[in-house]
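hey so i finally got around to running both of the ones u sent me last week. sorry it took forever, my laptop kept dying halfway thru and i had to restart like 3 times lol. anyway pasting them below in the order u listed, first the sequence line then the structure token line for each. didnt double check formatting much so if smth looks off just lmk and ill redo it

first one:
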Amino acid sequence: MRFFVALLPPPELVRDLAATVAAVTGTAGAGEGGPDRPRGLPGARWVDPARWHVTLAFLGPVDPATRPALDERLGRVARRHPPARLRVDGAGRFGDRVLWARVSGELGALATGVRRAAVRAGALHGDDRPLRAHLTLARVPAGAEVDLRGLVRALDEAIAPLPWSAEAITLMSSAGGPTPAYSVEGRWDLRGSPAAGR
């Protein structure tokens, strides 16, 4: 199993964003990828909206002996930081491999706190990529020839700002291949004062 720390969007935001994505991309019938599956990106693996999340830190495998310290330190981070005021307000891509919805808001301090907690617990090993907050909408397999630019432009214009308040950080595990199974391993409410989170 691999672990990551994430923010989970509320159901109403998931519903509204999923409707916008379906309106832009079209909705496939049962013979074209399953009911209510977006089309318009042949070969892509569309992420089930129920699995959308913002990754604050990817931890990889975590030694079970490390979990108590990790849980304790993530709890401390949550007590120091207030709920995060965020919004989904556009779309983007990582090359021609990943299509995503942009998440804006002040997450730098929270992500830094989460990563520092994981390092001190011995549960983070070398993931120093800068935070680019997003919800992954689709992945394109290696070798597929696609151009995501037109779809990014269409989604960027169609996605109206969708505000949300992230009220907790969640430790998730994933297991499996291209479509891994996610499980919630722990959840901590963000309870700090706004001043403390700066």
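and the second one:
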Amino acid sequence: MKELLHTDPELIRLSIPFSQEEMSKLESSLMENGCLEPIIIWNGVILDGHKRYKICVDENIEYEIEDMEFQNSIEAAIWICSKRVKQYSKRSAPYLYLIGKWYDYQKRYNFENRKKNGYQSSTDMNTNVPKGNRRVTSLAMGVELGMNHSTVEKYNKVAESIERLDTIEPALYNAILSGEVEFSQNELIRMLSMDNKTISRIRHRYVDRKDIKMRSYGVRKRKHFKNDDLDESDKKITINTGIKEMPAYDPDMAIRGLTLTIPMWIAAIERAQHQTDMTMATENAKLQLGEMLIKLEDKIQEALEDL
């Protein structure tokens, strides 16, 4: 029986989340072809292959182990980042995140090495680094990765912001790294200074909305399937009305009513915009209105898809 492998809370964060579609593909591949790549470990801790390992254990699939040697967890983390960053396209969220984390770990690694050479604090370290080389880590990484040192430092800010999202809205964190939602680098950096309520609104707008749309699409698909499944005899329903005949069905009635109602909603929104300085409203009031407008937007999108 193979040894039970472990995970490290810090290192497992470098295992980029998969979308549901990607996880399904990975599971199908492992079930059909077996585990072709080894699970890479260090001191019994998984460095690469967390998702493969879980599926293999759950489905009783054989797997191989490759044991790596590192001085410490920081060195192991640098190896993980440098390996995984090659798997993602440039400027994708995982690419930015991994370079940002790599830079963070590399700074810590360089600092520990300098301490061994006599520098006892970060202040001492900065004092003893030559004036032109204060950014020695980002400069060295920039050369290795073929980018400006300021770009490396910017990606570190992106990574810091993405990690903060995990503590506030894990669903948004997963959606960004799995590629289900996309934001620009500057948008991600701005989220670093946003309050929790604003982050929650972003999650509601970009993650919850997508879930709602997918669920409504599934319902519509099931309805179409059921209708297609019925034969013609099932679709014909005879209604006995006695002496009085039922009025003819008017398919436009509900649509005409909605068409007459929507202008009143538009007028109410415009009236609120003209009469109120929305920036002065309380956060609670803005949050409630934002949620209702997003729900309305979802319904509008569903109606447009049905037309």
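quick thing i noticed on the 2nd:
The first helix runs from residue 20 to 33.
anyway thats it, ttyl
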